[in-house]
Write a structure and sequence with these properties.
The complex is a heterodimer. In chain A, helix 4 packs across helix 10 and helix 9 runs antiparallel to helix 11. Chain A is an all-alpha fold. Chain A contains eleven helices and no strands. Chain A is elongated and about 90 Å long. Chain B is α/β, with parallel strands linked by helices. In chain B, helix 2 packs across helix 3, helix 3 crosses helix 4 and helix 4 runs parallel beside helix 5. At the A-B interface, helix 8 and helix 9 of A face strand 6 and helix 2 of B.
């Protein structure tokens, strides 16, 4: 029954995909020229008057070409898709891991100490809603390095979900489990690592999953702003080149990589999850 | 005064309330001998659990002290094991790992093999051989409580505290685990202090049953001796001539006297009761029992 449900679902997905691709393909065909070109058209080198979104066949052709040689490097404005994605991933992972390094211990502190929670909460509430890109000018001015600035922007946007979820998870560890640690005379450090951390791990992982999702959203915008390298820069550069096939192709790649990041985190979180 | 292994003196607990404070219980005075199995019965809200938590060192008293082995109890300790009603197993650890958690904390010098061997021995004692690698969520309520019992016995505390350990179990499972508890207790002669709501359970397990009056201002009014000889079994104990005498005495206390003796008007009488111990009662000795009943009524008047 389950397998037949899966089968039916994937069939439905395939039908939807091909229908939409078909509509897209048909609507964006360059009309056949039957009559001879006008003088103006001849002047313009036969270019179409009306710009069209490239059909899926054109995107697929480009995707095949790009993916069959993803690592080429032909100068600053012409790099393979894998190189651009690797730049973005490097920035996202660096910023994300730095944020985790700060957010998780700080979240522990806030979760365990009502004093720290009350004292730090106003800062968190004010800093959290700030769009991470708003930090960019300040970051560029202070750090004086565009690469490090974009990593900082990733850092600042991924810190909040992790911080808040860690604090929440730690503060809501069941009293009974803390009492088990107390009656077994566990030292504070052992209580933290053997009881509180495993108890709060699923909540912390949820925070990390939200963070990496946001970081991947933000890196595209940050790279559009900073330029140079990365998938965000690639999208904007291809827009400037009016190469819409490449734009669509990179949009799909952004989605694909984002999904892989989320899948990685969710498989880690399955590993720490427990049933009460 | 007898020198008890655990000595509870003038214990009171008050909570701040909207107006002033609420006294849950006061002037609890009792002792537990080494190797003795003591149950405490009382209605909800009389502060039984609070007394147990104070004994465990998880809560602190407003007044009074608990002395164990000549030392004052001032915090949780491995010398006092606790079994909670909701089992309190760590759900991300397997049954065995929950026990090794306790054993490792208790015997930090032991090797890994020693810890596992010791833990397995106690898992076997509660009849859980073969399911040691299951997580608590994959075990039934009865099995979980067995793991919890095994963990507590495996750490070999000097005093074992049980807070309604079988309260969440169905009657059949409860009976089976009670017998297992008796079995383990017969082997270890652990000193036990246990809260229960179940009169039959208390008679089956305990050497002595402490009876608490209703709260607020609850007191430990009586200490009932269970003179039925051991080993006891669930199906034979009810035929013992003393069984119904004890049972009737307990039920009578819970139904009527716990309320009559309840000290909610004793706000200013506290001074008169300092150091008062619960009245010793042995219902199987009917003459003495009558006398004690009178005593307790006298107490009620003086209260």
């Amino acid at each position: 029954m389950l397998s037949s449900l899966n089968l039916r679902a994937s069939m439905l997905s395939a039908i939807l995909l091909f229908t939409m691709l078909g509509i897209w393909e048909v609507l964006n065909q360059v009309p056949d020229k039957t009559e001879a070109m006008s003088e103006y058209e001849l002047l313009m080198g036969g270019a179409d008057q009306e710009a069209r979104v490239p059909p899926p066949s054109a995107v697929l052709k480009l995707a095949f070409a790009e993916l069959s040689n993803p690592f080429y490097d032909a100068g600053p404005n012409d790099k393979g898709i894998a190189i651009q994605l690797a730049y973005s991933l490097y920035r996202v992972l660096t910023g994300f891991l730095l944020a985790a390094l700060i957010a998780i211990p700080l979240g522990f502190l806030i979760g365990m100490s009502p004093l720290m929670h009350k004292a730090l909460n106003p800062f968190i509430q004010i800093l959290r809603p700030i769009s991470p890109l708003a930090w960019m000018p300040l970051a560029l001015f202070i750090i004086k390095d565009s690469e490090a600035s974009s990593i900082f922007v990733i850092f600042i946007c991924s810190i909040w979900p992790m911080l808040i979820n860690t604090a929440f998870g730690v503060a809501n560890v069941r009293e009974d489990w803390i009492n088990v640690a107390r009656t077994h005379e566990l030292k504070p450090l052992k209580t933290a690592t053997q009881v509180i951390l495993p108890a709060a791990a699923p909540t912390i992982l949820t925070g990390m999953r939200i963070s990496i999702g946001i970081a991947w959203l933000v890196i595209v915008a940050a790279e559009m702003l900073v330029g140079g390298t990365g998938i965000g820069y690639y999208v904007w550069n291809e827009w400037n080149n009016l190469d819409l096939s490449s734009v669509i192709f990179s949009i799909l790649m952004i989605g694909l990589v984002g999904m892989l990041l989320d899948l990685t985190l969710s498989s880690i979180s399955r590993w720490v999850e427990y049933e009460e | 005064m007898n020198k008890y292994f655990v000595e509870v003196q003038g214990l009171s607990r008050r909570y701040p309330a909207k107006e002033g404070e609420v006294t849950v219980f006061e002037e609890a005075n009792f002792g537990i001998e080494k190797g003795e199995f003591v149950c405490i019965i009382g209605h909800s809200g009389c502060g039984k659990s609070t007394i147990l938590n104070i004994l465990a060192g998880l809560d602190s008293a407003s007044d009074g002290v608990v002395i164990m082995n000549g030392k004052e109890v001032s915090g949780p300790s491995l010398e006092r094991g606790v079994i909670f009603q909701n089992y309190s197993l760590l759900p991300w650890r397997s049954a065995l790992k929950n026990i090794t958690f306790g054993v490792q904390a208790r015997f930090p010098g032991w090797s890994k093999e020693e810890i596992i061997e010791h833990s397995l021995k106690f898992l076997e004692l509660v009849g859980l051989k073969g399911v040691e690698h299951r997580k608590p969520s994959q075990l039934s309520g009865g099995m979980r409580q067995r793991v919890s019992i095994a963990r507590a016995f495996a750490t070999q505390p000097e005093l074992l505290l049980m807070d309604e350990p079988f309260g969440a179990l169905d009657a059949l499972t409860r009976g089976v685990i009670q017998e297992e508890l008796i079995k383990i207790w017969n082997e270890t002669h652990q000193t036990v202090f246990m809260i229960t709501h179940d009169v039959d359970e208390a008679i089956l397990l305990a050497d002595r049953i402490l009876l608490m009056t209703n709260g607020p201002y609850a007191r430990i009014a009586e200490s009932v001796k269970v003179s039925i000889p051991r080993p006891r079994e669930r199906n034979t104990i009810i035929h013992h001539p003393a069984y119904y005498q004890i049972r009737n005495h307990l039920v009578d206390f819970l139904v009527s006297r716990s309320k009559e003796l309840s000290g909610d008007n004793s706000n200013n009488a506290g001074l008169n009761n300092i150091g008062v111990r619960p009245v010793d009662v042995d219902p199987s000795d009917s003459i003495e029992s009558d006398q004690n009943l009178q005593n307790s009524e006298n107490l009620a008047v003086s209260v």
